Structure formats: C-alpha cells, structure tokens
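Practice problem: Maleylacetoacetate isomerase
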Amino acid sequence: MSDVILYDYWRSSASYRVRIALSLMDMAYQSVAVDLLAGAHKAPDFRKRNPQGLVPALEIDGLVLTQSLAIIEYLDETRSHAGFLPKDAVGRQRVRALSHAIAMDIHPICNLGVVGNVMKQAEAHGEDPAKVRLAWMGKYIGEGLEAFERLLDHPGTGSFCHGDRPSMADICLIPQIYNARRWEVDLSHLPMVNRIAERCLAMDAFARAHPDLAKPRD
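Answer key — structure tokens:
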C-alpha cells in the first residue's frame, strides 16, 4: 500500500486537480473518501489534517499538504519529472495566471458552500432553488470560461494551455469543463477551450482521474 494518501471527494474540482497531477506523474497513492455531502470534511479528525475543513489533503513525504495548487506546485518542485510549471519565469507566470483564473475566480463562486447558501436564500424568497442554482452556475462558469478563452489567444498557447505538454493550467481546466457540462453550460463558442479539453481528455492520465472512476462504489 502506498504511503501517499489523498483525502478526496470524487466530485470536488480541487481533488480532481490533484488526482490528475498524481496520475500524470504515475504516482501510486491511496485514496480516502471524504463525503462532503455527509459533512465528513467538518469532522474533528479531518480538521486535524486541514483546519479549513476542505478537500483535498495530501499526505506525502511525512507532510500533510492542503490547497490543490500549492500541492501541485510542491510536486513540481520536489519531483523533477512533474513538469507542471515551465522552467522560465515568464512561462511560470502565465501558467499561474491561467490556473488562478479558474481556481481563484470561477471555482470559489461555484463551490458547495457558496451555492448552498445561494439556494437557501432563493428558497427563502420563494424561488425554485434548483433553477437558481442552474442559472448561477451558467453565469459564473460561462463568463469565467469565456474569459479563459480570451487568455488562450496568446502566442504561448500550443497543443495545451501553455506549450505542448500539460501544465497546471490544463490540470485546472479539465475539472472546470466537467462542471460546465454537469451544469449544462454552453461551451460551443469556445474553440480553443474545447480543442485543449479534447486533447487532454484523450490522454490516459486524465481519464484515470475522472470523477466517475473516483466515485466510491456501494
């Protein structure tokens, strides 16, 4: 059994990012499910690993790491073959900017806690929470990915978001594409986003990290 342990929720975008990174590195790990819907992330035992009560948490190298992008950067800095960030400073800045556009601008507005509160407020005002949630996701994921498409209109974009190998930006993009499709967001007008997503999803490493494979079996 691997001594690398990922505390994971199958539909969590942040967890999905780390699964992709580990898969791209062919790094064996043990997955421990943390059921967000059941509130397992709020349990005292889990908060000892991550006081924020968020997934993922990664046990590796005798450490407990949190925050998906920080985990990915740690892997890049400690495993020379990872290659999630370019070697040059300008390239690293661009990959970080692309990654943050998703992980810091789209994801927080659409996460479980925020959307749950939006639905409660909708219900309190006599609105259909499910319809309000769908409209919320459509607006913020849609607008965010439209901005991401504009960021891709750049000489640094290659077969992937930056250059010709998957980077941290692609690792962030694919879970957001999963969420967009889940919430019926129209992406048909985003050719570069779609092209890169198709190329990533055709790779075995991305396929192995997919939520359908991470979902706990009854």
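Discussion: The beta strands are 5-8, 30-33, 57-60, 63-66. Students who identified this feature from the tokens alone can consider the problem solved.
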